[in-house]
Every structure is written in C-alpha cells, then in structure tokens.
Amino acid sequence: MGMTLTRPELETGYTLSRSALAHFAEHGFVKLKNVLSAETIAAYEPEITGKVIELNTQHLPLEERDTYGKAFLQVTNLWQDSEQVLEFVSSPRLARIATQLLGVQSVRLYHDQALYKESGGGMTPWHADQYYWPFATDRCVTVWIPLQETPMEMGPLSFAAGSHAFEHGRDLPISDESERVLQEALSEQEFPEVSEPYELGEVSYHLGWTFHHAPANQSDVPRRVMTIIYVDAAMEIAPPANKYQESDLANWMPGNQPGETVSSPLNPVLY
C-alpha cells in the first residue's frame, strides 16, 4: 500500500535553482533540501536497512577492524536483491537532478551503495570516490541520501569545497594516510571544509573527484545512508589505473572493456 502513495514523488521533477547549479559547478557538490518527503523515506528505509543486515559481510567487532572497516558497513547493488530498492534506485527524480548537475543529456546507473555507520563507528577518511572508478572524464556524481535526520554527532558527510579541481591526492585509497596527507594538502590549498547536519529529506550530490570525509558516529543509533552513483550515459571506460579500478570494471560493468562506453546490463539508463 505504501508504494502507491510514495512512487509519484520518485517520478516527478525537482526544481533546481540557478544558485544550486552554480554551487555545484563551483564547489563540486551541492546540498538540496526537501528532495524526498518523510513519507517516501519511511516507505523505503525498512527494506534498505533489512537488505543491509541480510547482505552485510562485515562480522568483526568494531575494535578488530581497520580504519576503512570501522568507518561503515558497506553493501553494494542492493537493487539486484530487492524490487523495492530497485524502484528507489531507479527514481527518475533523483537521476534527472544528476543529469542537470553534470550538464549531460542522460545518465546511467554505475552502482548503488548503502553506507551504514554504526553507533561508535569511526571517521571516514578524506578521499575522492573516482580513485576507485575507471572513467575517462569527471562526469560522474554520487547522491548521498540519509534515511534519517543526520545531526553533527552522527557523522554527516563533509566536503572540501572546490577540491574537485585539485589533482593532488587522487592516487590515495581510503586510509589513515589519505586522512593525514589530504587534511594537510586541502588545508594548504585553503579549500573550505563544509560540514553541516542534514535535515530529513535533504540529500547531497558530489562529483567523483570532490574530496570528502565524515566524522565518527557518536550517537547511539546507526547513521543509515543510501547512495546512488550516476555516470554520463556516454561515459567511456578508461584503462584501470589501480587494482580497485580493475575490480570495479569486472564487478560493476561486467563484459565492458576499456575504450568502450559503459553499457553492461548492470548500468541501465535512468534518465
């Protein structure tokens, strides 16, 4: 029953202001309020959370994990396991915002990823997502959708504004080293760090090369977040630059080769 009530919102347009478009172009990210209603989030959150619990492969206690493992529980391509998640991930509303921000005609799904930061979960070190992705251009963007109100103590995403144009540190995986090296480099370059809570229904979009990190979750509940990564539908695959990109090519674009346009069955056009 809930589905019929909430689906229209996922299909209708969202009006992006000129200032939001300008902010994204200048800073490499934008936060947008009221993209999803509380009702829509409430309709999909239990299914997403249930799938994270069911499909999660991280069973070590927090204190036994490395920095990356302490940062969050990570489950990818939930849409393949759930009709309801598929409906959420293929939302034309969310995809159309991505096309407008990227300034492209059409976007494909790269993959989705639930990022649940447990109570007591550690910081997510500074990094740029595109380090992991074998793409020929920077026309790829992640929507970060908290499934609850996210005050500062829960560890909301924070961005180095303008850092999408900064090429230093693009060769660093998420690690204690990336946190240290990038904190220093980003401070030297005087990229302002934008760190703010998220209201319920507020989401952010950030480019693949925008550096971001997140504080620890000091609250007593998990920080539940769903992300969807969009790429320009005409994106060409670059030769993988590291082992992570090799594995991403094999896992998220199966059958595709460097030099081709992204076109695997896992990468449908969403808008």
UniProtKB/TrEMBL annotation:
SUPFAM superfamilies, per the entry: Clavaminate synthase-like
Pfam families membership: PhyH
Protein name, UniProt field: Ectoine hydroxylase-related dioxygenase (Phytanoyl-CoA dioxygenase family)
Highest rank taxon of the organism: Bacteria
UniProt cross-references to InterPro entries, sorted A to Z: Phytyl_CoA_dOase-like
Species in which this protein is naturally found: Kribbella antiqua
GO MF, any single term: 2-oxoglutarate-dependent dioxygenase activity
Tagged with keyword Oxidoreductase: yes
Annotated signal sequence range: none
UniProt keyword annotations, A-Z: Dioxygenase, Oxidoreductase
